[in-house]
Design brief:
single chain; alpha/beta; Rossmann fold; six-stranded parallel sheet; binds thiamine diphosphate; binds magnesium ion
Length: 377
């Protein structure tokens, strides 16, 4: 059957500048000032050391469930450094390195993972949204922020983070569709770490790449080696500039790997092989960047001790605060609390005060909630 070819024909590109063997494509090497390179490496190492510390804190019962970033430091730092303070950063739940770069105090992140309301509140005047646990739901919000910036003619670009699994959610497609239709200033950063808990990428999509999904929505998509901080930096910088100049959205697929557990509640040995993990350990983003910096004479031997001391001081500040207030779990979801939550709140408040549970006869007769039992302990 004769058919005509529609122009333009689409293609998806892959970018790599510093490969896993430390080979540098000098023609593509971005110009980054030495001080900035050092700051980037410090932020990646801080991300790694904080991660290890947080996993230990969880194992010791000092924080709750935590989602480690180990292996994804380049994808986060290579992208986030291109934001101005006035730009907006929209995280999912695995962006601790990017969040610390943006200025979130470490003790605030610890507080989030220990159940404190304050842990979810971005520092005042910081243009970041809080951590989002429901997969992909942050993306329509991010497009809304970009739409608002465009409407108000603010010189602002939005960067939104999410994982490979998030691309199967309706919210992802709705967000990309409207980002394209409205041509808003946003950079979508997909950290394709190959797994959505125990679901591998091949069960997530039949597409050759995730980057190509942007083409359906009418804007560029680029795949980049997500363990190559220089590649992520260069790709993000280009996308940010395009967005700032009115060129609309970009989707970046950062191909990376989650070297650790999905969360501290997960056991990845049940669904993936040690060989696969070892293969990706060879592509560690930190080793590669360290070798690059060493050649430039920009590595500082004392960095690790300095970072560990910074983390230790933050852990101390975190643990110096009193216990979290259980009643805050009823706040902020609704402007006006619905009656059933009002009743539950009264019940918990009564239980915390040591008195008989308050509330309607139905709620008082219902079995105690987990929070109540915990509060009595
Ligand atoms: C809407 C929704 N469905 C299911 C979950 C449970 N859940 C938490 S993380 C996750 C996988 C997310 O995978 P991906 O988007 O690849 O991000 P990653 O965890 O790999 O960073 C799922 C299914 C959730 N939090 N929200
Ligand atoms: Mg994933």
């Amino acid at each position: 059957m004769p058919r005509s070819i529609l122009e333009p024909r689409f293609q998806v590109e892959h970018l790599s500048i510093l490969d896993s063997d430390g080979n540098l494509d000098a023609a593509l090497e971005p110009t980054i000032a030495p001080d900035q390179l050092k700051r980037m490496y410090r932020a990646m190492l801080l991300g790694r050391r904080l991660d290890e510390r947080m996993v230990r804190l969880q194992r010791q019962g000092r924080i709750g469930t935590f989602a480690p970033i180990k292996g994804q430091e380049a994808a986060q730092i290579g992208s986030v450094v291109n934001l101005r303070p006035s730009d907006w950063m929209v995280p999912s739940f695995r962006e601790t390195a990017a969040m610390v770069w943006r200025g979130w105090p470490i003790e605030k992140l610890l507080s989030f993972f220990a159940g404190y309301l304050e842990g979810g509140q971005p520092p005042r005047d910081q243009h970041d949204l809080p951590i989002t646990i429901p997969v992909s739901t942050q993306l329509p919000h991010a497009v809304g922020l970009a739409y608002a910036a465009q409407y108000r003619d603010d010189d602002v670009v939005v960067m939104a983070y999410f994982g490979d699994g998030a691309t199967s959610e309706g919210d992802f497609h709705e967000a990309l569709n409207f980002a394209g239709v409205w041509h808003v200033p946003i950079v979508f950063v997909c950290q394709n770490n190959q797994w959505a808990i125990s679901v591998p990428l091949k069960k997530q999509t039949h597409s050759r790449t995730l980057a190509q999904k942007a083409l359906a929505y009418g804007f560029p998509g680029l795949q980049v080696d997500g363990n190559d901080v220089l590649g992520v930096y260069a790709a993000t910088r280009e996308a940010m500039e395009r967005a700032r100049d009115g060129g609309g959205p970009t989707l970046l697929e950062c191909v990376t790997y989650r070297l650790g557990v999905h969360t501290t509640a997960d056991d990845p040995t049940k669904y993936r092989s040690n060989e696969e993990v070892a293969e990706w350990e060879r592509k560690d983003p930190l080793t590669r960047f360290a070798a690059y910096l060493e050649k430039k004479g920009l590595l500082d031997d004392r960095l690790e001790d300095e970072i560990d001391a910074e983390i230790a001081a933050a852990v101390q500040r975190f643990e110096a605060q009193g216990p979290p207030e259980p009643l805050t779990m009823f706040d902020h979801a609704y402007a006006v609390r619905p009656p059933h939550l009002e009743a539950q709140r009264a019940q918990v408040a009564g239980s915390l005060a040591g008195g008989a549970p308050h509330g309607t006869p139905e709620t008082a007769a219902s079995p105690p909630m987990r929070g109540q039992r915990a509060a009595r302990r």
